[in-house]
Amino acid sequence: MADITPQFQPGQGLTCTAAGAIVGGQVVMTSGTAVRTVVTATAAAANVVGVASRDAANGQEVGVQNSGVYMLTATGAIASGADVVAAATGTVATVGANTFGTVVGKALQDIANAQQGEILLTL
Questions:
Q1: Confidence band (pLDDT; 50, 70, 90) for 10?
Q2: How high is the pLDDT of residue 76?
Q3: Contacts of 91 (CB under 8 A, 6+ apart)
Q4: For the whole model, what pTM was predicted?
Q5: Three-class secondary structure assignment of 23-45
Q6: What is the dihedral of CA 81, 66, 104, 94, to 10 degrees?
Q7: Do 62 and 74 touch, CB atoms closer than 8 A?
Q8: How far is CA 103 from CA 9, 21, 61, 115, 117, in A?
Q9: Which of 1, 18, 28, 57 is the most buried (most CB within 10 A)?
Q10: How far apart are CA 15 and CA 105, in angstroms?
Q11: What proportion of the chain, given as a percentage, has pLDDT over 90?
Q12: β-pairing, 92-94 with 83-86?
């Protein structure tokens, strides 16, 4: 059997291509069949790969971070310690019914609706 070499090491960000406008700090998910192509995540997306490290226009490269603690925007109030999932427009929300398989992180503080707070990514 041949040796394999990882494409990215744990803790390293990914370099992806934006398939639409992305704002830094948005949760992103894979898009289509092209390798490492991402778009802004939608509600309870199961194919989340991380958080965009900067703004990117359609077709531009964008860094995607998949571990660590990031300031993310809440959709709805989130309690400290709550598991979170992707929400509309690349935000995060508290786990709801039928979304336990799509958890992307854990809130490290209380976060009010439409405000930013610390989220530990658990992808």
A1: low
A2: 96
A3: 26, 27, 72, 73, 74, 75
A4: 0.91
A5: CCCCEEEECCCCCCEEEECCCCC
A6: 60
A7: no
A8: 22, 24, 26, 19, 17
A9: 28
A10: 21
A11: 79
A12: antiparallel
